[in-house]
């Protein structure tokens, strides 16, 4: 393990600044969070993308959101096999152990993962099609939705619509999990689909009545 | 899709507050991030736990960190099979497409996933041992490290040490990815292992020279 | 060129320390900065004064801020003539080539340049009034603002207010540059005026609504 | 002045962190610096480039270096005319008012300004040749040195050598200032020429005996 390195000093400096201010001013709350455990009211599934900060957009405090972040905020369908399922594990923990009341899927504009999936669907990304591409195999989850946007000629508009479909696909796949479906039916859990425009700072919510996304 | 619901109004309100302040004050920067794409200097792998906010601890701006969050901040070993690998996809994207310079694994105290793994290793968690438990199968990744802490009698101390071992296991597994290993050897990527104490606001860094974690 | 001398040994020693620690820990990031070029999100214009460290105040990492430092953090008005304009060149490069999103003018307390301008305005500095004084001719930029503070009797308070006016003057002059004005109007650039109190560690931000500086 | 905006919140947060740690721990020193004035032992002239941090390389404390930063760390020759001379003003203040003992010119690799000058000298940059280009007119200072590197075929090597010549030109121009020349001759001031390699973390010092730069 000789490869592990000390933390860059500017991050050490910023950490000490955080400790002396934010932590220090909220010490009692942090101690309670440690002693009593977390009790988040919502789970958020968003993208790893560095431009998406759900805690910033929603002014979230420590302890409010249980957050899973993966490439393109995807939820694969419920599957029982011998494989590891990191996303499914996070959802299982949030819904069955923490009993969150809300489950929010947050998509976003300029998503590199979604763009990669479009490239695959158009036959332009042999490197992602390769069996050993982790990103390619992950984005396969979204492929079935491509037919809903295949006819859109403007490529930027097509990408924006496909990003929204990634949210819809994740919501649909969430309902294939028995524990999600039953919590939703019991009224203990509600699902929400969002899409944010990074450059414009917009936020749209999926409206089940129209099947479309509307500005909140 | 009748199950999807509108966003809770307190979140709508907070979003509008963010848009009128943070977004508005940084509009130019958000537009550039959208137009030019992200260029994060580091990837962070942390836990979904609602009490762990890496952007807060490090005063991070939008665009600085590419963040993957899963249960117990685990990196499984490199595997080539037909399964989906969400964590591996995130690492592949960060290292090969974004070419991040730092990869930070951030563990934390009071980790529910790590505690579940201890319970399994002690034979106290049949529900996690069940084949259909996503959390159980995910935490299997950490099981081989249990021998390093099995002899610790104080259960709280044992958990703290096992949480640190989760970071070490992830660092070791990272090095089984050919593209991580080669980037580290070329000096293009450095790995860092951290553990934070939620209640005390502490931050420790893994020191390869001693094999221990030290306060930064 | 016989006058050039070797570097003092205490600086050589510190450099080697930096190379073995900070550089070594961030090697991958430095290499990327060299290969891919800088992409700073902000330009800062501050004083040469040795007591003003913008990178320290803001925990800035290498690559974050494009920094121009001159006497009294002044921006002269936009001028097209045959003369060299070092400050204008730095602003042009930051805004048109690097397309920074923020432009911050940082003033400070105990500013020797601003004090010199007060002395000139009060007729107490013939040596600065002399045609050959570079400092005097440079500080002429600020003279028109003296009327805003001429009535303040307490000389320390007058100096503090004039330092803040130096920031306001620079912001106003920035808007005379066509490329700054158009970037601001397009929402691609935002301007910020700050003043820091060296002894107290205070930081104030210019508030356009009140025309005053307020603690951040 | 409606265009001036509040400071981005992540910078506000970092500032408060700095105040609670670095400032707080060094309060007495900051207060002395404010009360007694600065007494820097050296002036540094370096580039605005965000990748060049002289305070980091030399572990500099508040109060140590009087720093002027402009495009390509250039010193124009001594000139007496009606124009403003920001760089000359900074040098005059450092040498005659502060009486610094060292004057260091720090060049660096991958310098955009120097590259622009090469492009002009090769006839490839009509936009920089345009009369209204501030960067172009500023970089004219370096043009006379191009003949020393014109014969180098490898363009990267040519740029590295021209960056070093920018340091030499600045040193030579410094000696055209009567107050610099006399301070050097009196043994009250020594000049130093440095060049740093951003990616490799290297530091070279100009050696007047050989006319070359050598690793320190």
TrEMBL record, chains A, B, C, D:
Membrane-spanning segments: none
Keyword field: Lyase, Metal-binding, Zinc
Cofactor: Zn(2+)
Domain of life (superkingdom): Bacteria
UniProt: Zn(2+) binding residues: 47, 49, 108, 111
Molecular functions per Gene Ontology: carbonate dehydratase activity; zinc ion binding
Protein family (similarity comment): Belongs to the beta-class carbonic anhydrase family.
Protein name in the entry: Carbonic anhydrase
Record function comment: Reversible hydration of carbon dioxide.
A GO BP entry: carbon utilization
Keyword field contains Lyase: yes
EC numbers: 4.2.1.1
Keyword Repeat recorded: no
Catalytic activity: hydrogencarbonate + H(+) = CO2 + H2O
């Amino acid at each position: 393990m000789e490869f592990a390195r000390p933390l860059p000093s500017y991050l050490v400096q910023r950490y000490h600044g955080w400790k002396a201010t934010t932590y220090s001013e909220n010490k009692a709350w942090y101690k309670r969070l440690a002693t009593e455990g977390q009790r988040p009211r919502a789970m958020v599934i968003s993208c790893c993308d560095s431009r998406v900060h759900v805690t910033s957009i929603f002014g979230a405090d420590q302890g409010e959101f249980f957050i899973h972040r993966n490439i393109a905020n995807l939820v694969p369908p419920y599957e029982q096999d011998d494989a590891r399922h990191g996303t499914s594990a996070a959802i299982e923990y949030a819904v069955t152990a923490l009993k969150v009341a809300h489950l929010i899927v947050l998509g976003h504009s300029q998503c590199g993962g979604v763009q990669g999936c479009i490239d695959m669907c158009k036959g332009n990304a042999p490197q992602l099609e390769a069996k050993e591409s982790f990103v390619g195999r992950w984005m396969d989850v979204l492929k079935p939705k491509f037919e809903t946007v295949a006819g859109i000629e403007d490529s930027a508009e097509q990408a924006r619509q496909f990003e929204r479909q990634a949210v819809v696909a994740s919501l649909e796949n969430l309902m294939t999990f028995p524990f999600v479906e039953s919590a939703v039916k019991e009224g203990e859990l509600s699902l929400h689909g969002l899409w944010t425009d990074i450059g414009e700072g917009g936020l749209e919510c999926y409206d089940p009545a129209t099947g479309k996304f509307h500005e909140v």
